[in-house]
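Subject: Sanity check before I submit

Could someone independently write out the structure tokens for this chain? I want to compare against mine line by line before I put it in a report. The sequence has 384 residues.
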Amino acid sequence: MVFQNADSIDIFLSLLRSGMYGRPLDEYELPETIDWERVVTLARKHAVYGIIIDSVQFLPERLRPSESLSDKMNKFALGLIQTNILLDRTAARLVAFFKQYGLEGVLLKGQGVARYYREPQMRHSGDIDFYVGRKNYKKAVALCKEKLIGDKGKWEKIGIHFTFKMRGVQIEIHRLASRMSSPFRNRRFQNWIVEQLEYSPDRRILTLDNTDITLPSYDFDAIFIFYHAWRHYIMGGIGMRQLCDWAMIFHTHAEDIDIPKLKHHIQRFGIIKEWQLFACIAVNHLGVPKDKIPLYDPSYSEKSEKIFQEIMDGGNFGFYTVANTRTPMLGYGLRHGLGKVRNITGYFISLFPLIPVEATFLYFHRLFHGTIDLIKRSRHKSDN
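---
Independent answer below. Compare away.
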């Protein structure tokens, strides 16, 4: 697969690094002109438009966008800031609500990860993921149904979380933070997640709207944000936003991570090769210094380029891949089901040369759980 408009992609990545790290482009990175239409298209496709907008301030006047595009950028930035303020307030209200009933939890990803950025309000955020764990899950779901949703409200209880909307914001209440396809690796992974999210003294506090919100440790985020991105990649695709999140952890808090422990856990979970593939992308395309990414191995650079190309082509959560554009994202008919099976099989064929064991477990895992989720969604839809 060959990139279209390769020069625009290089410029896009240069602007992305500039916005992420808050610094002007080096002289050798400055182009003669910028195709802003192409850059904006890529930024939207990868859910990093806010970061690209933030990079404009570091450009010389001759390369800045036109007045009309600048106006559009300012309007988008204002909307993004307002969305993030709403998400911050909603997260605070959700945590305060649960605390009334003696329930504690941990905010995953989203508004917590945004704090790794120079300008948290310029990061694209979508929903709120709140981990309560298995022991508090039933109580949390019952409280949400009774107090927050009501009899006429819509909700779904699928897989590892319960989801509903609170003041227009999508909320996911998690009994599990994530899971691995291999049952052997997953057992270790789940034990680690419980220890980290429910007992670790290294958990942090973020105060929003006078409410203390518990966040995971830096060690946890370094592994979890990576695995979340990798899992989305192998399940259908990711955009550059997910990789930017991971890169920003090391940019902002590399010295706060227990590197020996991190390496130990990556090995225990059997994700070294996956980690090294993404590490090459972080170093080669997002400008993370080699010495800040544990287990970085340049010998994986060539293989990582194939993944990088797929990410660039697929965009945010793979929405722009040919497979996803041909298969409807919503609806649960036979055509949708067969389309998903075709997609899963295609991913298996693509992934097997890179990660044969994980790809095999993933294939059967997705077929099994996909069927179960399809049945549950169909039942839930008919009940409502």
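---
OP: Matches mine. For the report I'm noting this point. The chain has 15 helices and seven strands.
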